[in-house]
Amino acid sequence: MSQYWSPLVHDLEPYVPGEQPKMADLVKLNTNENPFGPSPKVLEAIRSELNDSLRLYPDPEGESLRRTIADYHGVSPEQVFLGNGSDEVLAHIFQALFQHGEPVLFPDISYSFYPVYCGLYRIEARPVPVTESFEIDPEDYRQANGGIIFPNPNAPTGRFLALDKVEAILRANPDRVVVVDEAYVDFGGDSAIPLVDRYPNLLVCQTLSKARSLAGLRVGFAIAQAELIEALNRVKNSFNSYPLDRLALAGAKAAFEDEAWFRRCREAVIHERERVTSALEGLGFEVLPSKANFVFARHPGRSGSELARGLRGQGIIVRHFDKPRIRDFLRITIGTTEQNDALIRGLQTL
Ligand SMILES: *Cc1c(COP(=O)(O)O)cnc(C)c1O
């Protein structure tokens, strides 16, 4: 607390990211990073940008990367917005598209950054409870709102909402923007991007942090009709003209150009996810059906905090949220085969 702070700062409740421990040789299954590493072509592209051109500002519009993403997803470059990680894209979305004096709706069990952005931009947040089985029910999104956002697949549940249900939410809210945060969509869900042409109120947000193994590069993007993208550009150009540096622009472009690497990593994660799910079920866990690179699981006889602490004692870190409804769950990122084996062995001994 300080007299020098702007009044708003006193009220902020910042997001708390998963721990990035400094110790080596931990089995780190707590922040949904991809265990397989970025494509060698990404590293090569970044290396080739390490030269005198770093004295020059990068392309403020990220033209070349936007064209690559547009071609990849079958939209036009005017429909693509880039940000420094999708977290920055989300922040601009809240400011540019959700300020209508009405509460923003999002599932009560979902990404905990959403209420933080509401606090930052003084938007009322209205968490909408997911069902007993942790599903999003489109019927619950028929109420006055200033915008709607949900991850699909949802985090931390891993559950995927079928696209016809996403459409039901879009159709029930033609006057408000519906944001589908697809951070995990590449692990088996269907993207809503093909719906963008039909729904002027749809905005889809994706990241290179998860399926493309580039959490450290900080690249996220949004796809929508050009009018919504223009709103984001206005905010971005009033905030930071150069959200992506030269290395990030080059690395991200190369990531989209190595489709084979992307597919291999993603399939390995999906394969391991199914294996971890069966193993956990064999140990008596209830595992929610996941289309993400993590599973959300609880044991009928053990508390989540006890299990998380026990694993930690063995050098295995998973995410535990000490929050109502999900206190008994662990969110476990899918790691390499060796890491997943360590997890399963660890749980067997607890
Ligand atoms: C990881 C994650 C993000 C943020 O991704 P970055 O691009 O790394 O900022 C956004 N939304 C959800 C639901 C996530 O899990």
TrEMBL record:
The modification N6-(pyridoxal phosphate)lysine is found at K210. Keywords: Amino-acid biosynthesis, Aminotransferase, Histidine biosynthesis, Pyridoxal phosphate, Transferase. Residues 25-345 form the Aminotransferase class I/classII large domain. CDD domains: AAT_like. GO terms for biological process: L-histidine biosynthetic process. Its cofactor is pyridoxal 5'-phosphate. It comes from the Bacteria. InterPro entries: Aminotrans_II_pyridoxalP_BS, Aminotransferase_I/II_large, HisP_aminotrans, HistidinolP_aminotransfase, PyrdxlP-dep_Trfase, PyrdxlP-dep_Trfase_major, PyrdxlP-dep_Trfase_small. Pathway: Amino-acid biosynthesis; L-histidine biosynthesis; L-histidine from 5-phospho-alpha-D-ribose 1-diphosphate: step 7/9. It is an enzyme of class 2 (transferase). SUPFAM superfamilies: PLP-dependent transferases. Its EC number is 2.6.1.9. GO terms for molecular function: histidinol-phosphate transaminase activity; pyridoxal phosphate binding. Pfam families: Aminotran_1_2 (PF00155). It catalyses: L-histidinol phosphate + 2-oxoglutarate = 3-(imidazol-4-yl)-2-oxopropyl phosphate + L-glutamate. Gene3D superfamilies: Aspartate Aminotransferase, domain 1, Type I PLP-dependent aspartate aminotransferase-like (Major domain). HAMAP family: HisC_aminotrans_2. PANTHER family: HISTIDINOL-PHOSPHATE AMINOTRANSFERASE, HISTIDINOL-PHOSPHATE AMINOTRANSFERASE 2. Homodimer. Belongs to the class-II pyridoxal-phosphate-dependent aminotransferase family. Histidinol-phosphate aminotransferase subfamily. This is Histidinol-phosphate aminotransferase. The gene is hisC.
